[in-house]
Amino acid sequence: MFTVNEVAVKLNVSRATVYNAVESGDLPHHRIGQGRGTIRISEEQLKRFLERNEMGRVDTLRPAPVVKLKHLS
Q1: Binning pLDDT at 50, 70 and 90, where does residue 73 land?
Q2: What CA dihedral angle connects 4, 6, 9 and 13, to 10 degrees?
Q3: How many CA atoms, within 13 angstroms, populate the side-chain half-sphere of residue 35?
C-alpha cells in the first residue's frame, strides 16, 4: 500500500492534488487508525483511478457543474 506522498511522487503531482482526489471520492483509499486515520492507497485502487481518468475515454467525460450566481438572479 502506498502513502499519499508515494502516490504523488509516482504521478508527478503535488500531495495536495492527491488529497483533493481522495477527499472528492475520485481516488479510492483506506483510512487506518483512529480519528481521521492515515490514508493508504493500494496498487489496485491507484490502477482503477488511473484507468477511470484516462484521457479520451468517453466514460471519463463529466458534464460541467451548474453554478448559480447570485448577482445574476
Answers
A1: low
A2: -10
A3: 1
Please report which helix (H) or strand (E) contains residue 32, including its range. strand 30-32
Task: Decide if 46 contacts 2 (C-beta within 8 A).
Answer: yes
46/27 Cα distance (integer angstroms): 7
Question: How far is the C-alpha of 38 from the C-alpha of 35, rounded, in Å?
Answer: 9
pLDDT at 39: 95
pLDDT digits (tens, 9 = 90+) for 24-58: 999 999 999 888 889 999 999 999 999 888 776 55
Alpha-carbon gap, residue 21 to 33, rounded angstroms:
20
